[in-house]
Design brief:
About 40% of the residues are buried. The longest helix is centred in the first third of the chain and has 14 residues, at about 45-55. This protein has a single domain, classed as Jelly Rolls. The protein has helices at about 45-55, 70-75, 80-95, 200-205, 215-220; strands at about 5, 15-20, 20-25, 30-35, 65-70, 105-110, 115, 125-130, 140, 145-150, 155-160, 165-170, 190-195, 225, 230-235, 240-245. The chain has a 6-stranded antiparallel β-sheet with strand order 1-16-15-14-2-3. The protein has a 6-stranded antiparallel β-sheet with strand order 4-11-8-13-6-5, covered by helices on one side. Strands 7-12-9-10 form a 4-stranded antiparallel β-sheet, with no helix packed on it. The protein is built from 5 helices and 16 strands. The chain is of the alpha+beta class.
């Protein structure tokens, strides 16, 4: 098999993740849930601080996704609690009760995002993202399912970490660095929660099945995502699966 041969189709993805001392397998959900919630406009002082951080300290290049300092942001963000509450209220409507409040949260920034999945780092979790920036003609796009979500202040999204996704220009289907030039006002800030798939309500909402490849899981020692029975990565420009390793019987 060509190690970079493209593999088509949204089906057949399996996440292998560590559960305690054991490696387990699970299906990768194609379900993406989203809504628009009420988020107050952010203070100009906070936005200016983020822009300095993005430009001078993080030096984000097109496609990069990096963390912003949340503790410092909260000191300049009187409505932070209202933003969190809006996301938590939405997840309650999905039957997730207080799962958001008990999950780890981070503040992130990006200048677009190359297509990728996060299953190799967060295979036992789903993400809930609350976008904070104004509409900058960008979409969160899931290429294998074709789901496209316009990003604006208050967009909230819940999805499987193993599903490929990217932040791209609204007119595009692929990621193009030129759409996020250094002189353009195109950075996004968002809160992200890591929701544990050990919670039955969450796996029910996403339709995730566990222990789908027990034999293979027993042979692995690092978290990864496979597609069509072989280790797979995602083309950063197109979002298509790329086979990266030999198939195991």
């Amino acid at each position: 098999m060509n190690p970079l041969a493209p593999v088509d189709g949204p089906e057949g993805a399996t996440a292998f993740y560590r559960d305690g001392q054991a490696m387990r397998s699970r299906s990768v959900s194609a379900i993406v849930l989203s809504a628009l919630v009420d988020v107050p406009p952010l203070p100009l002082r906070l936005l200016a601080d983020w822009e300095r951080e993005i430009t001078h300290k993080l030096a984000l290049e097109p496609g990069d996704v990096e963390a912003l300092p949340l503790a410092r942001a909260r000191m300049r963000w009187p409505d932070y609690g209202l933003c969190v509450q809006a996301a938590a209220d939405w997840t309650r409507t999905l039957g997730l009760h207080d799962l958001l409040a008990s999950s780890e949260v981070a503040l992130m920034a990006c200048r677009g995002a190359r297509y990728h999945h996060d299953g190799a780092q967060y295979g036992g979790a789903a993400f809930c993202n609350l976008f904070l920036s104004e509409d900058r003609a960008q979409d969160l796009y899931f290429p294998l399912s074709g789901q496209r979500i316009g990003l604006r202040r208050g967009t909230v999204v819940l999805f499987d970490t193993g599903q490929p996704h990217g932040v791209i220009a609204r007119h595009a289907t692929g990621f193009a660095p030129g759409d996020f030039a250094p002189t353009a006002d195109c950075s996004q800030a968002f809160l992200t929660w890591e929701l544990p798939l050990s919670q039955p309500a969450l796996t029910q909402v996403l339709g995730i099945r566990f222990d789908t490849a027990r034999t293979t899981a027993a042979l692995l020692d690092v978290e990864q995502v496979w597609h069509e029975a072989a280790p797979g990565e995602v083309c950063p420009n197109t979002g298509r699966w790329l086979a990266t390793g030999p198939q195991l019987d």
